[in-house]
Please model this.
Amino acid sequence: MDRWAWLTGAIIFEVGATLSLKGALDFPILYIVIVVGYLIAFICLSQTLKAGMPLGVAYGVWGSAGVALTALLAHLIFAEPLTLVMWLGILLVIIGVLFVEIGSQHASQHLTKQHLTKEHSTKERAT
Model:
């Protein structure tokens, strides 16, 4: 499975488990959903890393998407407040994660170029 699909699964299960925390206050049986949800979320997150996504990117996207979705869904489901300042905070977190992703891609390209240059130099010395 694709690393982004694994990460999406991790986000969905983490958000579901987190939202269930609120419901478990009235319905303790939901603690089962919480434990299972977090377990599956961490399994999906580990598969994301196994598929090759850098840890900083995976955790950043997972965390920021989790915060944004949890805040939005808690507003819709539990009528919790979602103010303009909260939206701004969520936006800043997402922007920060985008910078981490862009930096990760740049670093990956730089390392690939270094590796190719090193291989080329080694082949020239061998001939």
Notes: The mean pLDDT is 89.
